[in-house]
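Hi W., the iron/sulfur cluster complex you wanted:
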Amino acid sequence: MSTTPLTRSAPTAFGSARLLAGVTHGTRADLSTHRRLHGPQRHRTLEELAADAARVQLLGRGGAAFPVATKLAAVPPGRRTQVVVNGSESEPASRKDRTLMTLTPHLVLDGALAVARALRTSHVTIAVHDQAAASSLHAALQERALAEPSPELVRVERRPARFVAGEIRAVLRGLDGGPAVPPSRRTLPSEAGLHGAPTFASNVETFAQIALLVSLGPAEYAAVGSPEEPGTTLLTLLGDTRAQGVVEVPTDLPLDALVPGTSGPVLLGGYHGRWVEDVVGLSVTRPALRAGGLALNAGVVARLPREACALAEVTAVTRWLAAQSAGQCGPCLFGTAALARDVDDLLHGRTAPEVDARLAGLVRRGACAHPDGTVAFVTSALDVLTDELATHRRHGTCGRPYAGVLPLGERSVR
Ligand code: SF4
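Structure:
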């Protein structure tokens, strides 16, 4: 096994590691290690792959949790068809896709090549903004060129780290030489994606899950996890949680196994997610969370420690979200900035009489999900942080410091 250390904490598995098999010590799995752990690459036809994905009810592991079988069935196979692995993990709170690309690049490549072969195409593009992830993928491709040469053309393309640049339509537009912002016209990638060709696009973990599904077969794949969404999933844990960083968990794991006790609000789904008062009775199963109006999105779970000012954390992220607007839709550009000023007023004990109208005015007012995601984040925070808001209104502060538990990427906005 090669021994490329990660500078951040090594990932952890609750239960048996599958995606993270062999890498929970933070060392990268080279090709021989990967083959020992996961076996040789197996071929599935498009019909077989879609049937297997339907049998295990595999959902995409980016934001939308779209059924993989439905997406596979929507893409016409052929030589023009494109496969795009979206590794633009541009939410600073999430590290799961970077972890996969850095530590288990061959699992990601197996998944991408399984899809490409099923779709009878040789065009695979991996969009990535992280240098360590890109280097690991390049090294993995070199290993394969020597040991397992294949006809597929796999390109690793660097993309900007900006938040909305990671949205799949922005990724495709940027790969085609345009600005890395979502286009105003809503066209499905399966119809006209990269280079205008039919495109199967999904995020990194989805491709790694496809590789596992092909390697294990649907019965073994579904031997763990929830009946509604079998298997395991990756999360990034932050703050006052049982582990820190990237964890692999079975999909039926109760969330209070990761966020024990009931003290302090919990953010589910990252900066386009929602705050909840506690996680009692919730599991990580995406369909069950969706039924309750919640989403895992890119798998971020954060609980603020008691000694941190929660309202300061929310204010910092709201300002950051406003700064991430791509600036092409007026309601988004001006509305998110005004909303950030409102939240800042509340932090400093001032009133913000227009905040509710501001939130309502942002709903479904952009070319992408950024305004709606920002509204979900702020609305749920104001619903959950009623005690903190009252304290700040009375005293102008709660006396607790801003701790910076929720990361803001390379650009600080404070
Ligand atoms: S809604 Fe905002 S982030 Fe999305 S495309 Fe429009 S300006 Fe850009």
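Residues 18-225 form a domain with the Rossmann fold fold (CATH 3.40.50.11540).

W.
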